[in-house]
Amino acid sequence: MNVAKSGYRVFSANSTPACTELAKKITERLGVELGKSVVYQESNRETRVEIKESVRGQTIFIIQTIPRDVNTAVMELLIIAYALKTSCAKNIIGVIPYFPYSKQCKMRKRGSIVCKLLASMLAKAGLTHIITMDLHQKEIQGFFSFPVDNLRASPFLLQYIQEEVPDYRNAIIVAKSPSAAKRAQSYAERLRLGLAVMHGEAQCSESDMADGRQSPPCVRNTGHPGLELPCKQQAPFPGIELPMMMAKEKPPITVVGDVGGRIAIIVDDIIDDVEDFVAAAEILKERGAYKIYIMATHGLLSADAPRLIEESAIDVVVVTNTVPHEVQKLQCPKIKTVDVSMILAEAIRRIHNGESMAYLFRNITVDD
Q: 20 to 30 A from 232, CA-CA: which of 7, 111, 191, 330?
């Protein structure tokens, strides 16, 4: 297909060669050429974007994968979107397989919901639509003032299990925390496998779950046993005694479900800091699992993750290519990659042609 006759163009917002690989795979599947643009960092680390062809009246798709330098990638996306907007592009659609800051989608003490801020910035920069994959929380879609297509990687990961995991019928799907149980249950039901859930103190990586209303300043004793109030709050009315707030304590780690003599497959959406996964693998080995797989959509694998995986009881880590991780694969042969460029290319084609996206969500459950 000639790019001039396609009616749309595809650009890559990345300034590093390693991050343009996914964009090239998508354009090859679409039969179009990658748009001509230059994205680079000046000596003072400012991002500069130059669009090398006319985009007036065109529908533009910007493919942006997120490398380790997240903030630079966000600025690249914002600047190229604004450059296309001021160049009179008709529609600007962001293809952002891993949406950055998606873990900061809830209030933490006196923090902020950064994911909502980023959604507003993208709209202000000129984006009119985004395609993403496996948002950390599906409610994030409500932060945007324009359409969001949240694709799923589960069909590709399920296919990997069926084709690449020897004797997968002897496997059991594991949720490493109760919050991941719905996703694990969805996988287990479609593979006709059993389900196990891990629960306990080693599984909670988000220790700050309370918002600002649950973190009072210095306290004083009011004379009521078990009741302490913030310094600036008034004591309760005479005769009124509020119930004592019980501290939340995590129970000792337990595994609900029999994993003895089975292949344990832990499923999640993001694998970044791997301490929780390593601890979960050790517990599963102690419980009798003879092989440990980790299946996740986004392989961020930050810091010393490759080394920790290589030294752990984990046998294989399977992630998709939504995030560049070639360096991590060189450091750890246990990391395997599943290509999802096919569904991203099909989403671009359907959006451009005004076709329904329902085909891409067939047999997909809300818990995936």
A: 111
Radius of gyration (C-alpha) of the chain in whole angstroms: 24
pLDDT lower than 70: segments of the chain:
1-6, 201-240, 242, 245, 248, 250
Phi-psi region of 34 (alpha: psi -120 to 50; beta: other; left: phi over 0): beta
Give the end-to-end CA distance of the chain in Å, rounded to a whole number. Answer: 34
DSSP class of residue 279 equals H
Contact 339/25 with Cβ under 8 angstroms?
A: yes
What backbone torsions phi and psi does residue 336 show, to the nearest 5 degrees? -120, 150
> What is the SS3 assignment for 93?
strand
Instruction: Report pLDDT for 242.
Output: 67
DSSP 108-165: -BT---HHHHHHHHHHHHT--EEEEES-SSGGGGGG-SS-EEEE--HHHHHHHHHHHS
Q: What is the pLDDT of residue 3?
A: 45
Token match 């005694």: residue? 241
Residue showing tokens 């451009």: 352
pLDDT given for residue 7 in this prediction = 81
Cβ-based neighbour number of residue 337 at 10 Å = 15
Beta bridge partners of 48: 40
Q: Are 80 and 37 in contact (CB under 8 A)?
A: yes
* Residue 125 and residue 145 in contact, taking contact as beta carbons nearer than 8 Å: no
The β-bridge partners of 321 are 298
In tens, the pLDDT along 110-161 reads 889 999 999 999 999 999 999 999 999 999 999 999 999 999 999 999 999 9
**Structure token digits, residue 126:** 């000129």
- The pLDDT of residue 117 is 95
Listed residue (164, 167, 114) closest to 143, CA to CA: 114
pLDDT at position 220 is 47
